[in-house]
Amino acid sequence: MIAFAGTYDTSTLVSVIISSYVIYIFTSPMDMPFVYKGRGMKEKGVVSN
Questions:
Q1: N or C: more exposed end of the chain, with fewer CB within 10 A?
Q2: CA–CA distance, 44 with 39 (Å, rounded to integer)
């Protein structure tokens, strides 16, 4: 928010922050199975780094 201070008005910044957070809330549960799968593959040695 500090990076855009003076560039956009406050209502636009608040709108961007809220919409970004809503997107984060909805996408986080959807990517969690892939994170666990990748972590399991790394621990088994299927993939490296």
A1: C
A2: 9
* 1 Cβ contact list (under 8 Å, min separation 6): 13, 17
Rounded to an integer, what distance in angstroms lies between the CA atom of residue 42 and that of residue 49? 7
Q: What is the pTM of this model?
A: 0.59
Cα distance between residue 26 and residue 11, in whole Å = 23
Phi/psi zone of residue 19: left (φ > 0), alpha (ψ -120 to 50 degrees), beta?
alpha
What is the predicted pLDDT for the residue at 8?
Answer: 87
13 with 4: CB under 8 angstroms? yes
